[in-house]
Every structure is written in C-alpha cells, then in structure tokens.
Amino acid sequence: MSHASAAVPASSAAAPPAGAHRFSAVISRIAEEMAARDDHGAPADYIPMLAGVDPRRFGMAVAEPDGTVYGVGDWQQPFSTQSISKVFALALALSLDGERIWRGVGREPSGNPFNSLVQLEYENGIPRNPFINAGALVVTDRLQALTGDAAGQVRELLRTESGNAAIDFVPDVAASEAAHGDRNAALAHFMASYGNVTLPVPELLAAYFRQCSIEASCADLALSAGFLARHGVRADGSALLTRSQAKQVNAVMLTCGTYDAAGEFAYRVGLPGKSGVGGGIIAIVPGECTLCVWSPGLDRRGNSVAGVAALDRFTTLTGLSVF
Amino acid sequence: MSHASAAVPASSAAAPPAGAHRFSAVISRIAEEMAARDDHGAPADYIPMLAGVDPRRFGMAVAEPDGTVYGVGDWQQPFSTQSISKVFALALALSLDGERIWRGVGREPSGNPFNSLVQLEYENGIPRNPFINAGALVVTDRLQALTGDAAGQVRELLRTESGNAAIDFVPDVAASEAAHGDRNAALAHFMASYGNVTLPVPELLAAYFRQCSIEASCADLALSAGFLARHGVRADGSALLTRSQAKQVNAVMLTCGTYDAAGEFAYRVGLPGKSGVGGGIIAIVPGECTLCVWSPGLDRRGNSVAGVAALDRFTTLTGLSVF
Amino acid sequence: MSHASAAVPASSAAAPPAGAHRFSAVISRIAEEMAARDDHGAPADYIPMLAGVDPRRFGMAVAEPDGTVYGVGDWQQPFSTQSISKVFALALALSLDGERIWRGVGREPSGNPFNSLVQLEYENGIPRNPFINAGALVVTDRLQALTGDAAGQVRELLRTESGNAAIDFVPDVAASEAAHGDRNAALAHFMASYGNVTLPVPELLAAYFRQCSIEASCADLALSAGFLARHGVRADGSALLTRSQAKQVNAVMLTCGTYDAAGEFAYRVGLPGKSGVGGGIIAIVPGECTLCVWSPGLDRRGNSVAGVAALDRFTTLTGLSVF
Amino acid sequence: MSHASAAVPASSAAAPPAGAHRFSAVISRIAEEMAARDDHGAPADYIPMLAGVDPRRFGMAVAEPDGTVYGVGDWQQPFSTQSISKVFALALALSLDGERIWRGVGREPSGNPFNSLVQLEYENGIPRNPFINAGALVVTDRLQALTGDAAGQVRELLRTESGNAAIDFVPDVAASEAAHGDRNAALAHFMASYGNVTLPVPELLAAYFRQCSIEASCADLALSAGFLARHGVRADGSALLTRSQAKQVNAVMLTCGTYDAAGEFAYRVGLPGKSGVGGGIIAIVPGECTLCVWSPGLDRRGNSVAGVAALDRFTTLTGLSVF
Is residue B323 part of a domain? Predict the structure, then answer.
C-alpha cells in the first residue's frame, strides 16, 4: 500500500503533490475549516495521558480500497484508539465464531449512555449491542475465550491491515483505565451473575483495557478498517468476513457507533462510524473508501467535536453519504 | 408516470411484458419465495378491519426516480398505511416548519417499544424520535397547528405524488383506533402535561387517527416516497425538502423506522424503511428507487413478516443495501 | 361529640380552659414553636385557590376515641383535603368491596414520585398502592362503579363521622384540577389501556377531582379518621371496616402515605399518616387518638412543612410513636 | 437472662412448665399450626449449606425486655442469619457514626427487588435504604472503615446481647456467597464508581459475606434485638442507640425490612421486622418484646413462608401489632 499526505504531508518522507488523490482537496479544505473553529471540546479527563493532549490537534486520513492512503494534519500521529478497537474485536469474534456471538449481545440501539446498567438489568444481562461497554465486554470475553489473547489478536489485525508493525498497547493507559474501572467492573460482574461472561472478571477487564489502550494513527486505522469498505475482504485479498457479516458490522456502526448520539451522527454524517474517547472516529463509505479523523476534544456524549464536524463536512462536500 | 406490473399484472389494464423493468425478475422471484413460506405471522388484532385480512396476501412495488412503477402480487391493492403515514407527516412538518420541529422531538433510537411511556418520563416529555407514537403525536400536533388539517395534508401529499386521487381516509379504521386509543391518549396527555403538545388532546387524537387510517397501495406509496430517493425533489420537480432534510428523514428511518427492531432491519435489509401495523413497509434506495411491500401478517414487534423477508431478499439479490 | 379548643380557641364560642384535655398543653406548645419557624415552605402553585393561602397559617386538632375533639390555631378553618380524601375513599371501597379492591392496586411502597408512569408501565398497569395518584384513580373508579357517586360517598362519610353537615366540594378547586389534569388523564388512560379502570376516563376524572376538592377542617378530619384509631368502628358504634381492614389501611398509610417521603415520615413521626397538597396531614395513634394538622406551605415532596414538623414534635413530646 | 422453652423444650436442660410465660400458649399454638401446613416454600438454593435444610423445620422465640427468653420447636437451633445481620450492622454504624451514615444511604422503601441496580443508577449511586444489598454494603463499608473489622463487631454485638459466646461465622457459607457474589460485586463496584464506597471492593465483599455468614438461633437473635424494643438500651443497661435512633431503625425495618414485600408484611404482621434468606425473621414489639422465628422454606420474594405466617398469627392472636 502507498501512504501519501494530501496538503499537509506531516512526517511522510515521500509525499505526492497535493491533489494527487480524489479527496485531497476536500480534506485540505476541511482541515482549514477545523483549524478556524473556536469550539474544540475537551479531552477525556479520567485518563491522565489523554487529558493532557491539545484539543486543537487535528488529523484526517482517507484510505482507498486499493490500499492507497493519504491525509492532512496529524494524520500519522498515533493516538489512543479506545472504543474504536471494539469494531476490530467484533470483526474478529464474528470471523472466528460466526452468528454465535449474537447469542450474548444484541444489535439494537441502546437509547442509553454507553455505560448504563439499567437496560442491562431489564434485559437480563444481554447488552443491546457490541459497542456499548457491556456489549464490548461480551465480545472481548468471547474473543479471549477463543484465542487466549483478545487484545493481542486486535493488535495483530491492525498491524497486518495497516502494514505498520509498530502499532502497540500503551500499558500506562491500560493501567489508568483499570484504576478508574469500577463501572466496567460492575458491568462485567453483573453480566457474570447472568452467566453472560465466562472468564474471571479480572482477566476479562485486563484484556479489555489492553485492547482499548492500543495506539494507532488515522492512516493506520483508515487502512485497517478497509475490509468494511471491501465487503469483508482483507488487504491481502482473503476474506475476514462474509459480505453479510461486513454488512452487519456496518449496520451496527451506523445505528450504535457513536454512543447516545447515533441518531444525530446518522443524520449529520450518514455513514457507519465508530468513535473513541481518545478523539478518533472511523467511518466507512461502503465500496468507496474508509476515513479516520482525530481531534482529542470531545462533546458531552464522548464524541470528537472536530471529528464529527469534519465527517459532516466530508459527506456534505462529496455527497458520499449512504442516504 | 407509468404504472406497470411485473409478473403478476393484477388489475393493471396495460401491463408490459415481464422483464420490462430492471427489477421485474427480482421481485417476481421474491413473490414466489414468499408464496412458498409457511410462516406469515398474524395481522394486527386490535382493529377489526385489519384483523380479518388474509395474512398470505402479498404485494410489492418498485418506483423508479422517473415515476415508473411496477410490481407483483397485490401491488395495487389499497391497505391501511398506519405508521407509514408518519414519514409523510414528518416530511410535511419539516417542509413547513424547518428545524423547529426538532425542538419537540428527538432523532435518537428509542430502545423501547413504540408506545412506551418510560423513556418519555425520564426525558421530560420529549419523545426520542418522530416514529414512535409519542413522537408522531408531536409531529401531528405541530402540523395540525400549522395547517388546521394535518391528516388532510398527508392525504393530499400522497394523492399528488402518486397521481391517485382516490387515496382516502377510512373512517371505520380511525374509529376503531379511537376506540382502542387509551395508550395514545395517555401519551398525548402526558406530553401535554409538559407543554410538548399544544392542541386539545381530543383534536390531536382525531387528527392522528385520521392520518393513520389512510388507505393506499404499494404502487401509491412507492411513488409517494419518491422524493426521499430524489433527495427531496417531488414528482413535479419542485423541492419538498432540502437535500439535508431528505437525508435527515432517511437517517431517522434507518435508525428508528421499524419500532424496536431497527437494528435488525438495518442489518438484514440495510435500507431506510418504515413499517406500519397494516402490514406495509416502504424502503428507500437513495438515488436509485423506492420500494413498498405489503403482507398483513406481523411479527411480535409489529413488522410484516413477509415484508421484512422480501426486502431482505431484495437487497441480497440486488446488492442495493446502503452498506 | 364535643368540640373544644385547647389554648387558641379560634372561633369556638365556648372554649374550655386550656389543659382540659390530655394533649392540650402539648399542642399549644407545638403551635408556639411552629409560629416561631422561619421556614414554612410554599403552597401548591398549580391551583390558584390554594396558591393564595398564607403559608404561616397553622392549625392542629386531636380527636379522642370517644369523639371529643380539641385544637389550636386554625383548627376549625376548612381547607382543601386533596389527597387526604384518598384514605376515606379507600376505606369505603374496602367496606363495600372487601379484598377485591386489591386486585387492581397493590400495597407496596412505590419508590417513585406520586404521579410517575414508569412503575405503572413495568407493572402492567397495576399501581403500587392506593395513595399514589394512579392507585387512587383505581379506587375511585371502583367506588364510582359500585355507588354511582364516589365523591358524594366520601363527602357523606366525612359529614357523618365529623357531625359537620357543611362539609362540601369546592367546584372551583375541582375545575382548577381538571384544567391542570393532563398527568392524571395520562395515568387514567394508561390504566384503561390495561383494562384496570373501567369507567369512561372523563367520568372517572370528574369524580376524582370532585372528591379531592372537599373542604374540611382539622377538627372535621381528626374526627372523621376516628374509625382508624378505633380498629374500624364508626362514631355511632357500627363497623365500617373489620379490625384487619383497619390495620391494612393504617399499614398502607405508614408505608405509602406521604408520597416519596414515606420512609422519612415513618422515622420522624412514626405514625400512619396521609398528607394532601392542601397542606393537611392526618395521623393515627391506634387505640389512642387521631390527629390532623394543617399548614399550607409544602416541601418539595408535597408534604406540609410545619405539618410534618408538628407531628414530629407531637410524637417526640408524648412518646406516642408506634415504634 | 433466663432461657426457657415453652411447649417444646428442645435441648434446654431445665425447661419450666408450659405456660410459665405470657406468650407460651400462643407460640405453642402457632407451632402446631405451622406443623400442619402443607406449603413450606423452598430453601435458598444458591448456597449449598442452606439448600440442604429441611423446609419443615420451625422455631420461634420471644424475648422479654428483662432478658427472659422462651420458645418452641427449633428455637435453639443455630441457622444462617444472612440479611438479619444488616440490622445489627446498621445499629453499630449509627452508634459509632451518628447521622453521618445517612449521607451514603437513604431511608426510603425501594420499590424494587433487593439486588436491583436500576434505582441505584437513577439515584447516582446512593442506595434507597440500608436493607437492600447495596445499602447494606454502604453500611458495612463504613463500619469496616471505622472499626477495621465490621463482621467481628457484628458478631461481638450478638454474643454480648445474647450471652452466647459460641455465636460465630461459618466460613463455608461466606465462601459460597463469595462464589456466587457477582451481583454484590457489581453493586459494590458501581457505588465505588460514584465514590459511595471507599474500601477496595474485595475487602468490602469479604467483610460483608463474613457478616452474613454468622449463625445464631432464634433465642440468640430475639435477645440480641432486645435493644430495639428497649428504645436503644442494651442488655446491660447502657445505651447502644438514642431513643430517636432506635425509632429510626424500627421505622426502616417496618418500611424496608422484607425486600419487595415490606408493604404486605406491614399489613399482615404490622411490626418492624427483618428477614434473611436463611429463613429467619426478627420482629420488634416496641416496649413489649422481640420475636425471632425460623423456618428455611422461602417464598418467591425471599421471606420465610412459615416465618411470615407465624408472625401474622402472633399479632392476630395477641393484638400486638403497632397498628
């Protein structure tokens, strides 16, 4: 695959001339607009390593189905993937386990914040979908049970698809999460009381926090998510998911990928997307390309302010919404 | 516009030969598959006029953006639109009132059945979205306040877009709904206690039940929804909605259009869609075509069993999902 | 029965000397303490006729089992009984209908505000207890069905037990309630949708609002509630309730009589009690006496500030708590 | 204090003649009635040591304020106190910490099952009362923080008040609870996420399960609860609680002591009471006596079937209800 920056080549050694790629001009324009914004939101404050990041930082990358990737701003800067990792964990669980994963987690929007226990209780320990924390814990539980190293599998998938072997966990971030992990521990124990997670809770949480601590750049993530634009086909041409499974993941991303703001994201951006509290968002234009944007300032629902705005502008300027 | 049946011409006087349209073969195949199904679900039982319909009936229509429409089975048989009318009421409210309508109703999936009061209470009388009953009441309240005849406006829109001046209310159905209307009355009074509906509740309910009682065929509804595939443009070329508003409506349909099964519909069908307890479902392929399917047997969530299955098959056979 | 004021004879023509009754000194002291309070709360503001009352007004009456009644302050001033009427409606329904009334309403504390719909939905239209509004509507529905005039029956019971034939409805108060009755209408329609109220909702609401509009004084209500201190026996010696039924009513008053503050009332006052938003509270010392206190300023949970404080002082000074 | 069996002397060496005590005849009659029952419920099944107990076993003890205790049936048979221990932990916390304990736990009935997370979430991690599991965890957390050995303090209180130095933990029961402790772990972590428990969760759970594992007999518990009938005064005449605090504990027992059946218990029994899944129930007749009954078969809400029935009969036969 070829890496190529658009207007702001960052550290890329061999940047092609601006405009060499079909969305270069668009993303350059978006980067300028985002730089001019006053409101950047605030970084997540419960993880010290995330809290200190400058909320004005901004990067955006586009990956074409053929593996070409280009970007603007901090598009090659690694950041904490956090909940974006849930998409890759889900894809791996589906790949290894097929439909069975859906016995323990639903595919419906939750209508509640990402870490709510209420719905979980009314629905007997079966989380609504794999992108709220409870559902992601079910997925990691299953992936860990199947592979013995859920977090390592997610890291390996990112490394392989992006071609970047330097992608790795950040132990201090995982440790910070663990130190503030009571809510997730409550979710895990609660589902364990229903038999819907099977690993010892400390092992499950350790795997989950490691998975969330992976650092990767916009370039890495746009490339890694490419299989979702290619209907399940990996960078090397093999199938990670069936066409139907890829559609499942995209559908769940569209309806559930941005916490309690999925409806608004669908209407403003109109693409399957998944955000993380590290400030990143990936988005899929099925059959066309994948996007990843990063800006660490969050809105009150935990989504990157400039990230959502940038994707909104992208679909408006290009007309590439699914609607 | 031209009406044309595909394989089963029904009452169409001048049916073109089968295969004359791009999806004729596909929908004929689907109709055969549906006829072979054992499980048809059961019609809604609380409205006598709906309860008596044979659950094996099936019709499906496709409308092209240019106004051509063709279908199979009972595609020209009028049926009770019920909640499908909510899409047209929303479009009219958006058209007349712009963003203001969103002050009184959200755009997020509800995570609860269509007539739940729970979320409404926790969110202070603001319904989650315009397709649960509470949200539809807010839309009708506003449309009635703006026009003095919400139901008449919806009927007029359907007549104009479909070219079928015979589309009309069915007073007996409206009366049946009113006779079993305690849950909707509770919703309306509850929102009135928050000031989120402004009309006298009996007037609002009368308008709402009239709107839901409109009868139209698959052909009528596929044509009438055409503006959502044409990014807001009506059959006569004028704009009903802006491109952004059309995208809003499609996004809300995808995330909230099939009651508590929106996630599953998104994953199986992958199109913006809206169902009604009369057994109809409309679905939009943005930029491509609109679909309407009808079969009166429902699943436990209130969606047509054969209708969902037929749309699932359509997107699988044609690859026309948004994902 | 003999009416006798303690220290502040109010309009009583022939007041006996202070100290003539066993609690005269205690209630005089309490009245002085209440007069010295700074914080009186605020009258209910949604009924104009209640909103205008001076929150510093205060009256308290004690009725002995033999029908002697005495009081302090505004103890002979009629005020709006509001929810206190629910106790008398429940007693009449039990008397006429026996255990059957408990099929439609529970006897458990609600853990939610008095007009919540949430619990009602989770429990399929069966209200938790007869003192939240939903439960009181069920009781009035049944009493109206049995007698054709629920409100008239409650008025008659109060007149007979108090010996005051002037006790009556206040139509303007009933009309004010009806004008702000959307929440109660929502509750009634919601229960009607489960078949748990049987009358037409407008008839039920009219009966309910009339019942709540009854005006009576502390003296009237302390006397009228006497049967609850006499284990079910009316002033004339006949039985209104069985001993077991009287115990039921007292138990429900203790656990559910003061909206969402029943636990605090039990711990501070330690007596079965029932409050109304008119500022009145009745309380029962089984086998000993009945109390009624009135002061129109309410706390945020709808209970009279000085009323609760006065009863707290009464049980502290006399040691007459049930605990 | 003097131990004396009524009609069924069990293992007591020197039983006085039947009828020597004021309630001897009553409890003998009740024991006969309970022996004749067909329906005994089923023991708690999640703790093997409890599951194996014969549900027909029955014991009942009465302790007089002067320390005399007598009983029938298995009144001297130790059983697992389970949630009954929550009363003693609360009394100790109140004694050591005063009103401060109420900052972290309410005094209102819950309206939800004993181990629900729903209300806890809506009320930001503050449990409704100290007798649901979440509230008991808050009390134990505070008692452990104050004393370093919450469970040891509870055991010591029981030993001292009953005069039985053999009262002790049952490590196997504590271990069984821990092995099925995911729901309690969820509650503890959830409250920790709000800062409403302060100890490390494993330490808190260990203390809590030890406390619940204490075994004591009806005689022991009736004597130990004597301070609640003596308005806070211990067996040795010193004050454990103020009169007001004793009233608080009794009030919370009446409104919240029997899980989701507090209303029914109040109406049937009419006494402050606290049940445990070991099949025991203590009940207080303020100023008169304390009762403890044991029969291991439970109803669906977790209360002893024969225990509730026996207390119901006791208050019916003696007229000793608080109502």
Answer: no
> Looking at the domain assignment, is residue B93 inside a domain?
yes
Sequence-ordered list of residues with C-beta below 8 angstroms from that of D139, at least 6 positions apart, any chain: D86, D89, D90, D93, D101, D105, D130
- Catalytic one of B197, B208, B274, B305: B208
Distance from D319 to chain C by nearest Cα, in Å? 10
Q: How far is CA B162 from CA B1, B157, B158, C55, C104, in A?
A: 9, 8, 6, 64, 50
| Residues of chain D falling short of pLDDT 50 | 1-2, 5-18, 114
Q: Model-level pTM?
A: 0.87
Token pair recorded at residue B175: 């009366």
Residue C265: inside a domain: yes
> What ranges in C213-287 are assigned the alpha helix state H?
218-224, 226-229, 243-256, 262-268
Neighbours of chain A (3+ CB pairs under 8 A): B, D
Q: Edge to edge, what strands does the sheet with A3-5 contain? A: A3-5, A69-73, A59-63, A289-294, A280-285, A273-275
**How far apart are the two ends of chain B, measured CA to CA in Å?**
30
Residue B47 within a domain: yes
Contact A4, A15 (CB under 8 A): yes
pLDDT tens digits, residue range C274-299? 999 999 999 999 999 999 999 999 99
Tokens representing C277?
A: 């938003």
- Considering only CA atoms, which of A208, A165, A175 is closest in space to residue A49? A175
Q: How far apart are CA A243 and CA A257, in angstroms?
A: 20
pLDDT in tens, D66-87: 999 999 999 999 999 999 999 9
pLDDT tens readout for residues A76-85: 999 999 999 9
**In the predicted structure, residue A10 carries a pLDDT above the cut 90:** no
Residue with tokens 């490419």: A226
Asked whether residue A149 carries a pLDDT value surpassing 90, the answer given is yes
CA distances from B54 to B255, B291, B296 (A): 30, 22, 7
Q: Which residue in the set B244, B251, B267 is minimally distant from A266, CB to CB?
A: B251
Name every residue in B having a CB less than 8 A away from some CB of A.
106-112, 119, 128-129, 244, 246-248, 250-252, 254-256, 260-264, 266-267, 270, 272, 286, 316, 321-323
Domain range enclosing D142 = 3-318
How many folded domains does chain B comprise? 1
* Structure tokens, D103: 């900052």
| Angle, helices A85-97/A150-162, rounded to nearest 10 degrees | 100
Q: Residue B128 is part of a domain; what is its CATH number? A: 3.40.710.10
Single-letter amino acid, residue C31: A
Please compute Rg for chain A using Cα positions: 18
The DSSP code for C15 is P
Binary contact (A109, B262; C-beta < 8 A) = yes
Rounded Cα–Cα distance for residues D289 and C125 (Å): 41
pLDDT of residue C219: 98
Residue A83 bears catalytic tag: yes
CB-based contacts of A12-17 (< 8 A; 24+ apart in sequence): A12/A76, A16/A70
Mutate to test the interface with B, among A123, A313, A318, A323 (most CBs of B within 10 A): A323
Residue C91 CA to residue C68 CA, distance in Å, equals: 22
Taking contacts as CB-CB distances below 8 angstroms, the residues of chain C near B189 are 182-183, 185-186, 189
Report the C-alpha gap between A24 and A320 in whole angstroms. 15
How many CB atoms sit inside 10 A of residue C172's CB? 12
What does pLDDT average to in each consecutive run of 10 residues of chain B (323 residues)?
46 46 96 92 83 92 97 98 98 95 88 61 83 94 97 98 98 93 94 95 97 98 98 97 93 89 88 96 96 96 95 93 86
For residue A197, what are its two tokens? 């997670």
The answer to whether A177 is annotated as binding is yes
